[in-house]
């Protein structure tokens, strides 16, 4: 941490690759959102602006989002734990990375749409076939009505190419600002579905509904053969980031 300008937390190291560094101690009393001269809202710790790991100012367009960021900083205890600050980590990613790679990030979302989770079906067991139809078919219909995007379905894991017009339609629907694009990209990669991410972003689904749809296979497997505690814990951690991305998107939309 810099003595003059506080740094925003970085994402924790990936398990199995490098050991997670010790958590820094909390060094401030109060966090708050403050308006800037250019109409943005920055995060201040005891009056000092927070910067990203890339040394950029943490400043966002929406006051409500800035307040949510400040709340994450205020909620820290004796130590600052980035795992408990998902919106802050998302903002860091948007400011340091996505802002200078908007085209590439947008293309990644479109690539997911090209092999979207919702397009790959099974013929057994019957419970999963029925759940896919219940949860996924209405979303494909919504994508067709909302964006003019018609998706082709495949059975099993055989790749099916999606119509160019479908991918072009979804590309045109992507947000034009780094933070919302970062949020949409995170929801897409965590769920495996650009359709689900867009459905949350546009208010068609709640984060909980989208997460259930993304894990229809696991839901049926757990009903048939039981659940695994470690798998459930990993899923809960991923949902925390998914929900935070959805919340950040909604705060900017509002």
From TrEMBL:
UniProt keyword annotations, A-Z: Chaperone, Transit peptide
Biological process terms in GO annotation: proton-transporting ATP synthase complex assembly
Top-rank taxon: Bacteria
Record InterPro entries: ATP12_ATP_synth-F1-assembly, ATP12_ATP_synth-F1-assembly_N, ATP12_ortho_dom_sf
Region (Disordered): 1-23
Pfam families: ATP12 (PF07542)
Family: Belongs to the ATP12 family.
Protein name: Chaperone required for the assembly of the F1-ATPase
Native source species: Ancylobacter rudongensis
């Amino acid at each position: 941490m810099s003595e003059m300008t506080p740094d925003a937390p970085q994402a924790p190291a990936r398990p199995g690759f490098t050991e997670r560094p010790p958590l820094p101690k909390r060094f401030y009393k109060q966090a708050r959102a403050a308006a800037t001269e250019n109409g943005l809202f920055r995060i201040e710790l005891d009056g000092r602006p927070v910067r990203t790991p890339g040394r950029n100012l943490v400043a966002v367009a929406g006051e409500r989002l800035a307040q949510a960021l400040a709340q994450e900083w205020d909620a820290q205890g004796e130590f600052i734990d980035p795992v408990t600050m998902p919106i802050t980590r998302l903002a860091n990613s948007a400011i340091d990375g996505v802002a200078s790679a908007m085209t590439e990030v947008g293309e990644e979302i479109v690539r997911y749409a090209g092999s979207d989770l919702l397009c790959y079906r099974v013929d057994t067991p019957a419970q999963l076939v029925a759940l896919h139809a219940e949860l996924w078919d209405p979303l494909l219909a919504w994508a067709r009505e909302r964006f003019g995007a018609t998706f082709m379905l495949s059975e099993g894991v055989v790749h099916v190419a999606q119509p160019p017009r479908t991918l072009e339609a979804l590309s045109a629907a992507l947000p034009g600002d780094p933070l919302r694009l970062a949020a949409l990209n995170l929801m897409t990669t965590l769920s495996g579905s650009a359709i689900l991410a867009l459905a949350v972003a546009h208010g068609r689904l709640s984060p909980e509904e989208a997460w259930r749809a993304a894990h229809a296979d696991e839901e049926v497997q757990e009903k048939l053969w039981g659940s695994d505690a470690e798998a459930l814990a990993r899923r809960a951690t991923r949902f925390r980031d998914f929900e935070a991305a959805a919340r950040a998107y909604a705060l900017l939309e509002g």
